[in-house]
Write a structure and sequence with these properties.
mainly alpha, about 75% helix, about 425 residues, 14 helices, disordered C terminus
């Protein structure tokens, strides 16, 4: 019997050692403002630059309604997730799929959550590879007019080379400096986008009717625009993982500082999204490009600077979305395949991941065109309504579980007395 206890003790120690090594659970000393800029970096991606285009597919009324509703709904679902992080006393749901497993069961929870989360995170990393490469190319073309153009493929490889180094930072807290810089950049390039548009002035014969030529076109454009907006508000896939880095005690649970960070993040999100979407559409109408910076050619140095800021931001964004994937891969290899936690394993996994996302980005450079698809298929559920379903389900199940515990306690009490 004592041998069994030792075995359980050993296993617990081993599991603790693994948790101390894995990127999500290895460091829990983050400050509330870390959560603010991690959330800004995760959410305010290159998707902000396509919001005027989405507005041109909606038109004024529906466009403003969708933007405001998205801001409110995703803030509410984010609040739900922050609250659910420690809803079970003594346990923390450090990963999105753990919450899914608690709601839907061990296996079904994994099957429901993990594919969607991977589609979002890996898809975003690939999109950021392409965006980073194209933005670097735009910087080069803006500053060097007479230079021989360099193919986008090479720019994507240059962008990827940065991640072959950065991906080896062990956990969320170690990328907090990059994330802060990325958050500042997102606010900066968003501001440049709408200020430069205002300076350009409203184009001649501006037209604010939805850009589709036929009612059928307008319906499909509307649906595609919903996907683009969903992509712009996609930060929920890493919220629990960000909260896992905050310290927590029964007296001071992590939801306090996390919520403070979320509120600050959402104010910044509003300052980025609403001016870009509304000013961009106001200036260009339904002729706006799918990336508003493309429509702005002058002054060259400002457009080059804005694109450079986009590059810095997507460097941070890539790392934020890659970290939970690294955690999943490393957890699977160490816990299921019994690899020992080592620097060599981590180096191999992360280098291969960066290589694969780079390869897909090079072979499918129109990957950004799939944003609407990803937005509708996986980003909308994980950011808009999955959390509500989990919340409702747990609200129904919690009293049932509590009632069962009361009955068991009563039985035990009768048995012992």
């Amino acid at each position: 019997m004592s041998h069994d206890h030792e075995h359980v003790g050993e296993k617990t120690v081993k599991e603790q050692q693994i948790d101390d090594w894995l990127p999500i659970t290895s460091s829990r000393n983050a400050k509330w403002w870390y959560s603010a800029f991690h959330n800004v970096t995760a959410m305010v991606g290159a998707g902000v630059l396509s919001l005027p285009y989405a507005m041109s597919e909606f038109g004024w009324g529906p466009g403003i309604a969708v933007l405001v509703l998205s801001w409110v709904i995703t803030l509410y679902t984010l609040w739900q997730m922050v609250e659910m992080h420690e809803m079970v006393p003594g346990k923390r749901f450090d990963r999105y799929h753990e919450l899914g497993q608690h709601a839907f069961g061990e296996k079904l929870g994994l099957y429901i959550v993990v594919p969607q989360q991977l589609i979002v995170e890996v898809g975003t990393c690939i999109v950021y590879m392409v965006t980073g490469g194209k933005s670097l190319k735009k910087v080069h073309e803006s500053l060097c007019v007479d230079c021989k153009p360099i193919r986008t493929t090479w720019w994507i490889m240059i962008f990827a080379s940065i991640h072959f180094f950065l991906s080896h930072l062990p956990n969320f807290n170690s990328i907090s400096g990059i994330s802060l810089l990325a958050a500042v950049m997102s606010l900066t390039y968003s501001t440049i986008a709408w200020v430069a548009s205002l300076k350009k002035g409203v184009i001649e014969q501006v037209d604010y009717t939805p850009r589709g030529k036929t009612p059928t076109n307008n319906v499909f454009n509307f649906l595609s625009a919903l996907g683009d907006v969903a992509f712009a508000y996609a930060g929920h896939n890493v919220v629990l993982e960000i909260q896992a880095t905050l310290p927590s005690t029964p007296e001071k649970p992590s939801k306090g500082p996390m919520w403070k960070g979320v509120v600050v993040a959402y104010i910044i999100v509003g300052l980025c999204y609403f001016p870009v979407a509304l000013v961009g559409f106001y200036i260009f109408g339904n002729t706006v490009e799918d990336n508003i910076l493309i429509g702005l050619q002058k002054p060259a140095w400002l457009i080059a600077a804005a694109n450079l800021f986009v590059v810095v931001h997507v460097i941070g964004g890539y790392q934020i979305f890659a970290m939970p994937v690294f955690d999943m891969l490393e957890t699977y290899l160490v816990k299921k395949q019994n690899f020992s936690p080592s620097a060599a394993l981590r180096f191999t996994v992360r280098t291969l991941y960066v290589g694969v996302t780079m390869f897909i980005g090079i072979t499918i450079p129109f990957f950004g065109g799939l944003l609407g698809f990803f937005g509708g298929f996986a980003l909308a559920p994980t950011s808009y309504y999955f959390c509500i379903i989990v919340g409702v389900l747990l609200t129904i199940l919690a009293p049932i579980g509590a009632l069962r515990n009361i009955i068991l306690s009563a039985k035990n009490y009768r048995f012992y007395s």
